[in-house]
Every structure is written in structure tokens, then in C-alpha cells.
Specification:
This protein is an all-alpha fold. The chain has 12 helices and 2 strands. Strands 1-2 form a two-stranded antiparallel sheet.
Length: about 325
């Protein structure tokens, strides 16, 4: 745990140091994000804030991981790193289309194309987990450890795609996605350490530390947005870490904020279509609904953080309840 905590602290320091010139560079390159008309009018003031902030997280993560984790002894760490690289690339292309001065696909990648690409990536990751790393089980609190066989691969694909999409939906307010994913990574870092998977714990704390460093610049009013470059990779790597611990069953609890955000979107769209235009929420996803109710942005984020911390604590407690 000492190495994991020190690595997380080092990632934080390096990210804060790296973020200063990186944010200045992104601003100089005119990477200002256009604000969607689907967002509350109060968000118009955010127009022009640089995006691609996920790079501020992932460069320090790679550097600290290279130093802190023995890659030759723990080659399985290449899987979450590969997932980060692939989803980060998908997010980068998507972010190009959301700039005020668009240089890529107008409006970014379509939802269907992103889901298709994520599904292919998830299928590859699921096969590696099952066939190469021999990870194929689920841990159930108070009951035990159960192998699932080939069915595990289908579960892994759904877990990765759903988590990645849910985290991306959550990324809509300053520090919201960054904070809630931070708590989830800390929770899984503790779980991995208890299991004796020190290298997974170290990796989880490195991402948590880098994420914390990113929040230095994403604090309201944000100087940079993580964009899908950050959000997609955070969601995908969180799912892979959860799968590697065998505690993916607890992911909907530990990531309760993401579940609520994604479900609010699904419910809103489905009800809108079935009812011929009626809405359940004033605006979806859920964080915008609370804004429309009159909550300030910082109030919404703080309360989501509270829920995220409590859910993470309960999730760790349930993980500890699994018989050895």
C-alpha cells in the first residue's frame, strides 16, 4: 500500500506540474469547446474553454506507471493501458468535432459509431481477460467466488461499454466526472490491495492521483475540460480494473453516480419517444435536471460527490464481505 499511495501522490504532483504548460498550449492552439444547445443557457459562458484535458491525466499516468509498476512481472497492466490508449484516441477524434472552430467531423462522432467502436474494443479486452489472463469469475458478498466460463466475455463487454458510456454522460459539469471517477478508482485500489493485487492497486491510485491533479485545472470555473479524450478512457479503464479484481458486480454501486446519469438519459429519451414529446426530467442527464431546479453548479457537483463517496465506502465494505 505504501508504494500505491506514494505513486498516487507522485501522479498528483506530476499532473499539476504538467497541467500548467499543457493547458496554456491547448488554449494557444484554440481548442475551445462549443457548447451544445441541449445544455442549460447558463453553460454558454463556458464556450471557448479548452478541451482535450484528458491528455493532462494520461501523460502523467503513463510516466508514473512506467516507473512504479514492474511491466515484465505484471504484463497484464498493459491491458488497461492499451484500453486507455484506444479509448483516448476515439475520444480525441470525437473532441475534434466539438470545437468552436471545427477541424474534424462536425459535432463529433455519432453515438452509434462510438458505441460500435467501444464494443469492438471491449470484445478484444474481454477475450484477453478470459483467454490470456484467466480472469473469468465474479465475487459475491457473503457467498464467495464463482467462475463463469465463456459467459464471462459477454458480461465483460457489457461492463466496459456501459461504464464507458455512463462516465462520458456524467462529464457535463466542472469536476463532476473527475471527482466521481476518482472515488471509484480509490475504492478499487483498496479492494485490489486487500486481494494482494498490489500492482492493480498501484495503477488505480496512479489514475486517482492524476485525476486529482487534473481537478486543479478543472475546478469551477474550469480552465480546461477533460472531453471524451479523458471521459471515455476513465470509464473504460475503471471497468477493466473492476473486472481484474473480480468485483465488477459492485461497479453499479461504486459508480452509482454514473448509473443515475446514464439511466436518466435512457429514461428521458425513451419516454420522450413513447409519449410523443413529454419529459420525465426537466433536462437530461440528471445533473442538468438539478440545475433547472435552481441548484448551482457547485451544489450539484458537491452532492454528487457525497453520493459517490458514500457509495464507494459501501462498495468496499461489501467487497470485504466476500469469503476468502
Amino acid at each position: 500500500m505504501i508504494r500505491a499511495l506514494l505513486s498516487g501522490g507522485a501522479a498528483f504532483v506530476l499532473t499539476v506540474g504538467f497541467g500548467w504548460p499543457m493547458v496554456a498550449y491547448l488554449r494557444a492552439q484554440r481548442t475551445g469547446k462549443a457548447i451544445s444547445e441541449d445544455q442549460p443557457s447558463s453553460h454558454l459562458a463556458k464556450a471557448g474553454t479548452p478541451t482535450f484535458g484528458g491528455l493532462v491525466i494520461w501523460v502523467p499516468t503513463l510516466i508514473v506507471t512506467a516507473v512504479a509498476v514492474d511491466w515484465l512481472e505484471h504484463r497484464s497492466i498493459l491491458l488497461p493501458l492499451g484500453v486507455i490508449a484506444a479509448t483516448g484516441a476515439i475520444g480525441f477524434i470525437d473532441d475534434l468535432g466539438t470545437l468552436q472552430e471545427r477541424v474534424g467531423l462536425r459535432g463529433g462522432l455519432s453515438w452509434r459509431l462510438k458505441v460500435a467502436l467501444l464494443t469492438v474494443l471491449a470484445a478484444v479486452a474481454a477475450w484477453i481477460l478470459y483467454a490470456q489472463l484467466d480472469v473469468e469469475s465474479v465475487n459475491v458478498p457473503w457467498l464467495g467466488h464463482y467462475p463463469l466460463g465463456p459467459a464471462y466475455m459477454a458480461i465483460a463487454v457489457v461492463t466496459i461499454v456501459a461504464t464507458t458510456s455512463a462516465v462520458a454522460v456524467t462529464d457535463g459539469l466542472d469536476t463532476l466526472a473527475g471527482g466521481t471517477t476518482l472515488f471509484a478508482f480509490v475504492a478499487y485500489g483498496v479492494i485490489a490491495f486487500v486481494q494482494g493485487q498490489d500492482f492493480v492497486a498501484t495503477f488505480a491510485f496512479i489514475i486517482a492521483g492524476a485525476n486529482l491533479g487534473f481537478l486543479w485545472y478543472n475546478a469551477h470555473p474550469a480552465r480546461v475540460f477533460m472531453g471524451d479524450t479523458g471521459a471515455l478512457a476513465l470509464g473504460a479503464s475503471l471497468a477493466v480494473v473492476a473486472l481484474m479484481t473480480g468485483h465488477w458486480l459492485l461497479l453499479p454501486l461504486i459508480g452509482l453516480a454514473f448509473v443515475a446519469e446514464a439511466l436518466s438519459n435512457v429514461i428521458q429519451i425513451a419516454y420522450f419517444r413513447l409519449s410523443g414529446g413529454a419529459r420525465v426530467f426537466r433536462r437530461a442527464p440528471l445533473h442538468h435536471h438539478f440545475e433547472e431546479l435552481g441548484w448551482s453548479e457547485t451544489t450539484v457537483v458537491t452532492r454528487f460527490w457525497m453520493v459517490g463517496i458514500a457509495a464507494a465506502m459501501i462498495g468496499v465494505a461489501l467487497a470485504l464481505a466476500v469469503p476468502a
